[in-house]
Amino acid sequence: MADHMDVPRLRGLIDEFLAAAYEHHRHQDLPALCERLRLPQPPPEEGHSKHQRLSASLQACPDDGLEAVAEAVLESQPLAAWERNRLEDVLWLGRPHVRIPGRTRRELAREFDLSGHLNYPDRFMALLDRVWDLGDDLRGSWNDSAPALRDEIQRHVIRFQEDWTTEYFFEQLHAFEAPDPRFGHFLEGLASPTTLPDEQAQHRFVDLVNKHLQPVGAQLRLEGEQDGYPLFQLVQSGQGTGRRPRNLIFATLGKPDIRFTSALDNDIEIAERSDQVLVYDRPVGKNGLLWRELLAWWQETREISDPERATWSLFDRMDSSLPPKSDGQKNLFWLYHNIYREDLSAVPALLPEIWVHWDPRTVRERGALALQNLRMDFLMLLPGNRRVVLEVDGMQHYTRKEGTVPDSAKYAATMAGDRDLKFRGYEVFRFGHDELRDRGQARPVVTEFFRTLLDRSSNEPS
Predict the structure, then answer these.
(1) Does the pTM exceed 0.70?
(2) Is pLDDT larger for residue 460 or for residue 209?
């Protein structure tokens, strides 16, 4: 779970939902309900009311499990828009998101011509339904005769398009004061082919939005395609590579023997010694690669049903790939998992011995044209397509003859490789082996580094 998730608020909202749910379920329905909502099983019926049983189930749910419970509630239960939005806002605010000031929103609205979107009124209304509370449920309002916002939009935006300005329309949606993630989802929805199946109109809208977002360090960036149309994602400008990984080759025990089974599709195969290589080939989303996603892949591919056993086996497999004589690398890997052991499922995976470049020939065969730094010590994939490389530098990085002679050429090659990675959008951080040699002394260094790195990832726009 993100560091800034409002856990008490999230737990309270789930409790409100359960308080309403028990009225519509029998005692015998509660175990299935809890399973569907990813809650621990309730205590036995004997001597307990339905409310008590569901409350006990929620109390037994750890904080790092609440996010999954909230997602299950949103997926499986028909909620009123105001209920859905309250729950979504807590979830979204606890995740990396782009901050868009109210002034930027208002200036964008003043220049935004809705006519292109209104060519597809049903799609436009469907987007509004997904993102905003259109007031269909007046929640016992004293003024039962007041028209719902949906009806007002149908009349003054769809039918009589000159009635409302876009700025006034945004006012009615409460878009100017909405939480940043909700406004960001609205912009992504307006740029989506689901709402606007017209590529030229999409680009016109994106160009307009980016003109206003650029001064605040954000943009709608092309991320791929959907049904043949471009697909855009709201990100912070200048962050990440702009591309998502397709194959992650890591925890290698030797140089992999790779061949393309389809060069057109970038499909690869480990031709020999596949047991010495791990290849994560699932899509990496905009939130990066989390430990829980890596663990789910490991469980499914290795057919391990017990999460705890899978966790230890995956950790051991990755740890075994680290150089046995590099205490620094081993300590960095162990400390990261120890520091975040209570919340491991919600933090990014730390991938060891990752292949960034690959060349079938050796460096000696390739000569001056050889790529530098083929394999990195560690890689983390963070929100916003950020690729973070961690290197632990021993004497072999800047000396020769077993550390007895300084070697400026080795150091220069290392720095050249770093520059190449940075130009490709990677962030490179280097640790000296000596600062990680002793685990006790290394703990505060490693703790502060990852706290700063992940806190920046959670709070900066992505």
Answers:
(1) no
(2) 209
